[in-house]
Predict the structure.
Amino acid sequence: MVFDVKDLGRSPGSMRTLNEHVPAPSDLGVALIGVQEGSDVGLDLRLEAVHEGILVSGTADVEVTGECGRCLDPLAYDLEVNVQELFFYEGMLPSDEEEEEEQRRVEHDLIDLEPVLRDAVVTMLPFQPVCREDCQGLCSECGARLEDEPGHHHEVLDPRWAALADMAKPDRQN
């Protein structure tokens, strides 16, 4: 997602809008949930030339897909994330507040929005996605869906008492 900003020049105050639909890059998510590679990403951005570089601000709309972390049912919903990043011109000294590697750069009149989009989307994804807050999930013993079987349970004997349980069985021979 590289965009040309040559038309903005180095004239503070010049601005243009960017309304485009682009394919989603890979790795735009976490293990259970994310944005499908190649799916539609709607960008509604404003590119402004400022003294230090190009300020990019606006929103990105993506479709998030994945599965519930409890019951493994599929999930899908639309997500709008805010994007704001300053791309420094080549030759500008980075500020003391941030390390140089964390700062984005305008390189050869181009800006790469992919890392900015990845940071914005991934930080908005849930750590443990669920289909509903009260999702009961799956049985840890047999994998049965607890929503379908409300009274589902297994009798689990403490292994320390297993020898005594064997003694209490009626078919046990002395």
Notes: The longest strand covers residues 53-67.
